[in-house]
Amino acid sequence: MKILVVGGGGREHAIIMKLAESKQVDALYCAPGNGGIAQFATCYPVKATDIDGMVKLAKELAVDIVFVAPDDPLVLGMVDAMEAEGFMTFGPSKAAAIIEGSKVFSKQLMKQYGIPTAGYEVFTQPDQAIAYIKAKNTYPTVIKADGLALGKGVVLAQDFAEAEAAVRSMMEDKIFGESGAQIVVEEFLTGPEVSVLCFTDGKTVCPMISSMDHKRANDGDQGLNTGGMGTVSPNPYYTEEIADVCMKTIFLPTVDAMAKEGRAFKGCLYFGLMLTPNGPKVIEYNCRFGDPETQVVLPLLETDFVDIIKAIHAGTLDQLDIQWKKGCVACVIMASGGYPKKYATGLPISGLNEKGQLDSAFVYHAGTRYENGTFLTAGGRVLGVTVAGDTLQQALDGAYAAVEQIRFEGAHYRKDIGQRALACGK
Questions:
Q1: Coil, strand, or helix at residue 363?
Q2: Is the Cα torsion angle 146, 147, 149, 151 positive or negative in sign?
Q3: Which of 1, 134, 215, 239 is deepest in the core (most CB within 10 A)?
Q4: What is the distance between the alpha carbons of residues 351 and 353, in angstroms, rounded to a whole number?
Q5: What is the end-to-end Cα distance of the chain in Å, rounded?
Q6: Whole-angstrom distance, CA of residue 322 vs CA of residue 313
Q7: 327: closest CA among 385, 386, 391?
Q8: pLDDT digits (tens, 9 = 90+) for 364-400
Q9: Residue 329 half-sphere exposure, CB side, CA atoms within 13 Å?
Q10: H helix runs in 322-407, sequence order
């Protein structure tokens, strides 16, 4: 089979490496891809959001499967366009992708169907939102842009001044464009965070191994929200008992609710959960594989990924017994200095071999390009340095030892990835 993966980050690199393990795959293509992905798949310079261009490419390459990985093209309806042309496509339809495309939609879905989440209010006017926050007077308070914002459209305001600034920057300054035309103001939940990715064909739900993301830019969960600075899997806070509660109260009810709304969800549905003192609650949904969660979850997948894609497409996921490897995986993100704000690109990366790899770790390329035999930085998050081990400590030790071998000017990474996970049960 020939497979085209849409996207160009660390998540797509992880998806390609897992697809490459399948005996059913003859050729792998990626658009737009990046410097590291280009060592394992043929890359084409088509933007991930260029639906017409991507359909044209899929036809030219005569691919068997199109795997749409990022949120933007899913929310824009790329899956619908591909399916209309007869391509087997992995990912939800435009109607289903709204579960991530609109925070307002997802919050109202949860309220309507009794799925546990934080209390919230929706606002279309900044002054009304600010008046509500002032009257509530409870901090931290959570302010979310309605639409997509590269994982950065959430502010945890510690006081009224921060909350007012967040509302005005989203709604008046339009720092996230039209994504901030509506906002959600919600209560701040406490407890360990868990990410659970689930395969679903619109009826059956097959959760993957759990993981723990680290969103803040700096150690000790300080600094600005990012797309994610590192991950570990599995998440030790996510016990079998909690998994059972989540399946009954969150996962199945969400997939059933989407089907009832005429928006059957097929693909990978991401659940961002908070294990509160009052039980697990949904913080957010994503309509696709998370980044960098994918980099620690897919390495543990034993079952042929292509068989899963086929079963989801055919609606026969209930007939597949998905198997997972034992062990732990840790991923440390090496980011550009200044990320998630302004940062330089085009800086040479040293320490990697000609495949953009290390002998001791798998390096998922998130933001790189390859020129004249050299890998250069080309994004905020640059590399995801990933190691598997029998224990989490082993995986983390390996990942940090590997990070020490890689250099680029201004490289920034957190030194405390996985520490909360190691503290679990102590």
A1: strand
A2: positive
A3: 215
A4: 7
A5: 48
A6: 16
A7: 391
A8: 999 999 999 999 999 999 999 999 999 999 999 999 9
A9: 27
A10: 392-403
